[in-house]
Write a structure and sequence with these properties.
The chain is mainly α. Helices cover 62% and strands 7% of the residues. The chain has a single domain, classed as Multidrug-efflux Transporter Regulator, Chain: A, Domain 2 (Orthogonal Bundle). The protein contains 5 helices and 4 strands. Helix 3 crosses helix 5.
Length: 110
């Protein structure tokens, strides 16, 4: 998620929704189901997502949509990853996927 080559520190729920292709209500629901996903709220009460929050959203999206896991299954995978038992290779694939997605967006914008 970059605008004119500058990466932002915080993103709105609308920006995250647009980038990931997920509806905002899905993001809010996932906050209740995944303890790893806790975007901060600003003074106005609006959610502010960091790059780490977006990485978690993309990871959840991958587990649910690509791997076909249930919410409970995805929770177990994330808990295992958080405790250090997760696959380093899988984290690398998620990072590679995000990098390629950003590169494609930049190419399309050119």
């Amino acid at each position: 998620m970059q605008e004119k080559g500058i990466q932002k520190l915080y993103y709105s729920i609308g920006e995250v929704s647009e980038t990931t292709g997920l509806e905002t209500h899905v993001l809010r629901y996932w906050e209740t189901e995944f303890k790893e996903l806790k975007p901060r709220k600003n003074r106005a009460g609006h959610r502010t997502y960091t790059s780490e929050d977006i990485r978690i959203v993309e990871r959840i999206q991958y587990l649910l949509k690509e791997r076909g896991l249930t919410i409970k299954g995805a929770q177990k995978v994330l808990a295992a990853e958080e405790s250090g038992a997760g696959s380093e290779q899988m984290r690398n694939l998620v990072e590679l996927r995000r990098f390629l997605k950003e590169a494609l967006e930049q190419l399309e914008a050119s």
